[in-house]
Amino acid sequence: MKKTIRDFDLKDKKVIIRVDFNVPIKDGLITDDNRVVESLETINYAINNSAKVILMSHLGRVKEESDKAKNTLKLVSLRLSELLNKEVIFIPQTRGIELEKAISNLKSGDVLLMENTRYEDLDGEKESNNDLELAKYWANLGDIYINDAFGTSHRSHASNVGLASLLPNGVGFLIEKELKVLASSIDNPIRPLTVILGGAKVSDKIGVIKNLVNKADYILIGGGMAFTFLKAQGIEVGKSLVDLDNLDFCREMLEKHEDKLILPIDVIASHEMSDNSDYRETFITDLKSDEMGLDIGSQTIKVFKQYLVDSQTIIWNGPVGAFEYSNFANGTKALCEILANLEAITILGGGDTASAAINFGYKEAFTHISTGGGASLELLEGKTLSGIDIIHNK
Ligand code: AMP
User: Fold this and answer.
1) Phi then psi for 35, rounded to 5 degrees?
2) Which CATH number goes with the domain that contains 81?
3) Is residue 138 domain-shared with residue 213, that is, in the same domain?
4) Which residue, 136, 138, 152, 147, is CA-closest to 169?
């Protein structure tokens, strides 16, 4: 068991909390603040226990000077302040006198957010390469380190692995929840356990399929990745996405686990992936050579539903269609709607699918929506996460 924030006396201590405020921003607005909302429990706990709270997060990628303005955390500090109903001291620096002074002036219960940790990437990718000098500088700013950034925990950065190696440490409530929900659903599920896999490429999901094919009762496959499986069965899939390098893998999986892997029987077909393209619903076997399958069809939704209504635990990773386009979003929406009406434990892996489900209005429909796309994928692959591994055990 990992140490948690509850294992420390936080009173009057400078507590560095690594949160994941890497939120999508469009036209100066946060389009999904789920990650900020999910961090509140840990931050409020630290405030209520009289800590001097120092928050760190990355936002986007900072490769050149011009990336800074669009990736400042200023906007997030304003949203956080609203959600906490409390002043958040925002320091537009990742190091320097202004930051050091602000930290030494903190009173117990105050909250400070420093600028995007990846501003440090401009000078030799110090944050992303877990630079020791940077980690030491940041460690000197605090007394205790709490990692609650689940979405970054599969990476080894100065602000997670670096800091944890230098300070007394623990995890926050969000990481605790993510691990509990995801790990117990994979390793000790209430059965039947059904996994829905989608997304573009088979290659991204090979590790997940290998790990889960022996743990899940059923794997429902949609999205672009389904077509490599269908082609492996000898079905002509027209211009649909096919990953030729992984045809053999798909064939082998189908031979060994035919009864577990459930593939689409019909699709929404079109000549192009756009909001304005003509489209039609067709059985896979009638797909024309110049068409591509861009969403699952209504018969497939019915078949998937039969498995889902009988399941006690459902884990979903990856959209079952090109949901960014309104013509091809129906399958992903329909599955959200089916899951919303089930009593089962329903877990949605993070990333784009999570944002889509929230934007479609299904935030409350799931037992848990993970805040980590890559991190939840690695857990589904059966890997351990370096940002959590480094945290001391109790
Ligand atoms: P991933 O990042 O692997 O989860 O993939 C997400 C992407 O897969 C989204 O951008 C979808 O548009 C895309 N996608 C889903 N279904 C299809 C499909 N049938 N054909 C092409 N792309 C798809």
Assistant:
1) -65, -35
2) 3.40.50.1260
3) no
4) 147
Whether 226 and 119 share a structural domain: no
User: Residue 386: inside a domain, yes or no?
Assistant: no
What does the pLDDT read at residue 197? Answer: 96
Locate tokens 């036209």: which residue? 27
Token pair for 246: 């992984």
Query: Does the pTM exceed 0.90?
Result: yes
Render pLDDT for 53-95 as a digit per residue (tens, 0 to 9).
999 999 999 999 999 999 999 999 999 999 999 999 999 999 9
The answer to whether residue 352 scores a pLDDT higher than 90 is no
Give yes or no for residue 318 CB within 6 A of ligand 1.
Answer: yes
Residue 43 Cα to ligand 1 middle (Å): 35
Which domain covers residue 150, as residue numbers?
Answer: 5-174
Q: Which of 35, 79, 177, 260 is catalytic?
A: 35
293 lines ligand 1 (CB under 6 A): yes
Q: What average pLDDT does the segment 106-129 reach?
A: 98
User: 222, 321 in Cβ contact below 8 A?
Assistant: yes
Whether residue 184 lies inside any domain: the answer is no
Q: What is the CA radius of gyration of the chain?
A: 23
Let me know if 35 is a catalytic residue: yes
Catalytic site residue 374?
A: yes
- Which one of the listed residues 142, 351, 372, 373 is annotated catalytic? 351
Residue 359 scores a pLDDT above 90: no
